[in-house]
Amino acid sequence: MRVTNVLVLILASLALLAGCGAATPQISVNEPWVRAAAMTGMGAQGAMGGHGGHGGADMTPAGGTSAAYMVLINRGGAGDRLVSASTDVAEVVELHETKMVDNVMQMAPVAGGIPVPANGQVELKPGGLHVMLIGLKRDLAAGETVRLTLKFERAGEMTVDAPVRMP
Ligand SMILES: [Cu+2]
Q1: Mean pLDDT for the stretch of residues 154-161
Q2: How many A from CA of 5 to the centre of ligand 1?
Q3: Paired sense of beta strands 27-35 and 114-116, if any
Q4: What is the 100 CA–ligand 1 centroid distance (Å)?
Q5: Per-residue pLDDT for 92 more than 80?
């Protein structure tokens, strides 16, 4: 089968999926990536780039931290919500939001998860919403891949392989 035929089939399938998605979310994950980070020591370097506000050295876990970013797209007619995420490479995974408070960049867990509006999208990016990886179990080097499991309120669980790169 030619590549073009395969593409047409895929597009047709997507159209079908979209067609029956009137009252359900149709979530897809675009361009996921994870910030390169070291388990110890160098983790602080990454923390300078937009993750300044974890409240003090005593709150920094031993394993270092990183973050995952992506665009969540909803082609369905109903809204959904990213409620949690998990990965084998970190002890704890939280959904975070970075904001400026009194000219200081701080981040905090997002209460109730990250909404993905019907027929819309939400971007997780440095300096904004992100999936926080806390307590890394190993170094994350550029070029590697990290498997993330994303759990949506309505669409259920979705697994993506996110490449590791420098910000
Ligand atoms: Cu964070």
Answers
A1: 97
A2: 43
A3: unpaired
A4: 13
A5: yes
